[in-house]
Description:
By secondary structure, the protein is an alpha/beta fold. A 4-stranded parallel beta sheet has the order 2-1-3-4, with helices on both faces. Helix 3 crosses helix 4, helix 4 packs across helix 5 and helix 4 packs across helix 6.
Amino acid sequence: MSSTPYLRNACPLPRSPLAARAPAPPVCTPRPRSGPLTSGRVPGPRAVPRRLWAAAGRVDDRAVARLITDALETDGALATWTALCAPALAAVTGAAPALALAAGIRAALGARLTRLARPGRRPTVMLAAAPGEPGAAGELPLSALAVVLLEHGIESWRLGADLPWPALSSAVTRAAPAQLVVWSSAASADDDARRAAMEAAHPTVPVVPAGPGWPESLSLPAAAAVCLALAGAR
């Protein structure tokens, strides 16, 4: 199956009758600085496919979910996150469009996780947001990473938001994962110290520091590559 137009050439989309009738919503304008889900320069509206941009501007989370679902089916989670989700989340502004965009992405990723899950297969990777991580800042990239792993046959545990470091350490002790991914969007000296303590307490469990909040600043694709290499996936 060929790649969808909005992933093959993300900026701009080829015009369709639907896209031609949907004006660019005035509420969606680029943020002046980096958002919590990406690092570096923030793309403007022209870097986001028109149909996704228009759906967010209409506050149509169902349309967002359909577009993301189609992309996941055709191009996979890694390409979908990189070409669609991350640029849109970084550039959108306005509370209502941002909520609709996040809700649509969350729904599409959740449905994909349900479809790919294989009951009875033991998870081996634990995914957690760093304590204090705000809302979708950790939830969405970790859900996308979970889909990437499932596409390679690797199940994961996804822990709840804002789990304190001691509770996370206890979860590692109980579940004994093969690796732990901790997503952080904002630098914190306390997180660095806690991470070092986690590695000392669980020396056999590699800790993958994902997100721009860590000194390594691993993007989602880079974190996925580390996880797959540790799992020996092909």
